[in-house]
Amino acid sequence: MEEYKAKFINFLFQNGLSVSATPDKDRQLKSKRISPWFLNVGEFNDGLTLDKLAGAYADVIVDSDIHVDSLFGIPEKGVSLVGPVAVAMANKGKNVGWFFTRKVPKEYGEATGLSPEERRKKEIVGRVPQDTDKIGFLDDVFTTGDAKYGAIETLQKLGYSAFSLLAIALDRQEVGIDGKSAIEEYESRTGIKVISSLKATDVLDYLGKQLQDTSGNTTEIKRRIERLSNYLRVYGTPEARKYVDANLGKLEQRIIEKDRSVIPACDIPFENFEELVKQTADVEGIGGYKIPAIAGRKGWETWINVARKYTNKPIIYDHQKAGTDIPDTGKEFMRNVKESGFDAIILFPQSGPETERAWIYHALDNDLKVIVGGRMTHPAYSVSEGGFITDEGALDMYRIAAKAGINNFVVPGNKPDVIKTVKEIVESEGISPVFYAPGFIAQGGKIEEAAKIAGDKFHGIVGRGIYKSEDMKKAALEHTSQL
Fold first, then answer.
1. What is the pTM of this model?
2. 3-class SS at 164?
3. What φ, ψ does residue 253 adopt, rounded to 5°?
4. In CATH, what number does 260-480 get?
5. Of 69, 177, 182, 316, which is the most exposed, with the fewest CB atoms less than 10 Å away?
6. H helix or E strand, kind and range, residue 175
7. How is the chain split into domains, by residue range?
8. What is the pLDDT of residues 283-307, one digit of tens each?
9. DSSP code for 168
10. Beta strands in 272-336 (DSSP E)
């Protein structure tokens, strides 16, 4: 990392930039996402801090070699920046004008029917640009871009059309709800180049350098790196995700040690659960146990304590179905699941992309392994089967998870064509999938057929075929032999 950039990040950490090591200090953004990191430009509210911040803006604008005649401050944060940045640019030999627009015109009613030139005099504070001036925009960060598009509309009403750049302090490198980079979309739609003093990956670089240079306790720094990295895995642009994979390694969550196994679905009364685990725990082909949402958190802990009397194999929580609530609820939900003792969680994020991303992020943040499903075993689920969920929407659940680095997926074992399609989709995202499949015995699927299509890493989820047998160990041996 360049020395000037490291010094600037250090300055930011002292004056408004935070990356929290614990969830209690997270911030909710305008986008409603709960973020472990945040830059509050409003903290730069004295002469010294504002001077340094303005200097960083001036550096990135001058170094961009993009021509600017006048700077426009986008309300609200950009208004306080535009004058100081113009001064900083003049100190670097580049003299430009600066301006912003009044929130309310000076006189009500008079603006109606005025020419652009007359409106400019009433609405602009600062130097009024010429028609041919190249105008650059200033703001603090870029989230969805609503204020940035609004600024263009404001200036177009004043008769301006020559816009050259948008300078921000920090590029969070996030995608929007649609999974696209909000900045790339803005650049494509407007032709305006977005430049920033720093990117999210610069902050990760800085934290990594801190880790190398620190001889004392590094636990907090490691946790900050981990939390920011997980956030970028889920919400980051392809560029940010690629950086995380290259520098910190791909996610690759291995839940079951064996490549193939059978997982008993323990959808049974608690009084029968201990016998099920007792009879099957030493069967080599049993990979773990799937616990249902029967008794709430206290019940989960009781079930897990019973299972741990006989096995250390992974215990997977199946909420049936988790991910159907609003994004915010994922934070506490995942904390409770982790504290109960589960190793992994199954999500069916039918509430949409933002819930899916939030719940995956909060699961990773709590060191839970994640399994994501989209299609189900029963008839009349997807639209093509007569159900409510569109086929493409269900497949998007897998796509979004794969983009976040998730490699564990639930697929319907009785629908081989769906397994094939999901496999193709996640592999196209660079993921080597591990499949978990229910839908056998009572629902007609065959383990050997599903396993053949799924590939090398496959775990059949079997419920009634084991727990309704008179000899559960014998049934477990029979099903594992089909792998």
1. 0.89
2. strand
3. -85, 110
4. 3.20.20.70
5. 177
6. none
7. 3-248, 260-480
8. 999 999 999 988 788 899 999 999 9
9. E
10. 289-292, 315-322
